[in-house]
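thought: fold this chain, then report.
action: predict
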Amino acid sequence: MRITRLLRSRDEKVGLPRKVTGAPPGTIFYTGRRQMEDVHVHLTSYDAEAYNCATTINEIPADTAPGKIDWYDMRGLHQTELVGELGSRFGMHPLALEDVADVQQRPKMESYEKGVFLQLKAFAFDSATRQLSTEQVSIYLTDNTVVTFQEDAGDLFAPVRHRLEIASGRIRSRGADYLAYALVDNVVDRYFTVLDQIEEALDALEDNILKRPEVQTKSSIHDLRLSLLTMRKSTSPLREMVGNFGDSNHYLISEDTQLFVRDLRDHVIQVTDLVETYRDVTNGLYDLYVSEISFRMNSVMQTLTIVSTIFIPLSFLAGIYGMNFINMPELNTRYGYFVLLGVMGLAIVGMLYLFRRRGWL
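observation:
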């Protein structure tokens, strides 16, 4: 339950703003913290023969030549006026624009009369700190146009842009719906990269636990546990979103593209299964950590117990001959001191032999 509270209150802990209570539906309010100095719109225009790209700052690019597919990629969501202007130009529904700026939305697909709205999460994993960062991505598909919204200046869609530039595969010869699919597929592919990094972190933690568990190992396991729970919250509804995308009868989505989307659904199921598997592994690592700590503590206690047990007869002998009685025959023995030391030594050797024979050492 404590992890659930941490996930639920993580937004408050990092100071994410909340939408104003009572605001009318369709109000564009940015609920994130990322802000960029230069919010810009990147325009990519292409067809089977040509490819052009341009970047403009704080304004909507001019219309491009007809017959081409236009991809408007806005980076930076805190400038909500530009979000509204870009969305209004392509007839985005006010509720879709509200969801673009609300980074706490779950992945989903919404169909409108003149467009299709897709929303999902992108992840990045820092192997050094074992921290997972999340970025919300929104995609709007309309006639021969795709509009995307990213929170950061970094380009999540660089591989897709590169494929367009070199005309790799079928992407330049297909419609805007295939571009929307390619963008979603690119984000899902990044999930596998993040999960590979998490797997490496889990392997490193397992080696650390088996060799020498440390105090910070528990915190590292807890961080990975929270990261996987965060991914699970986003990948579970992603299955529904991709399923709706692949089964949609919207006129903007062709049957040919739906075949690729259904293959993407298999990838999403694989991601979901991996997240669940790694969650189980993380829970197993925590149990292993507790068991290893208990085993080492038991080993220490066993060693201390053996040492204490060895000294019990020695203390008994030393206590007897440490008494101040005058009439003790052994006190007048010439070699009594050495005999006593020999008896003590034999007691030590005998007890060690007995412990080893019983498997206590």
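thought: worth noting. The chain is about 55% helix and 15% strand.
final: tokens above.
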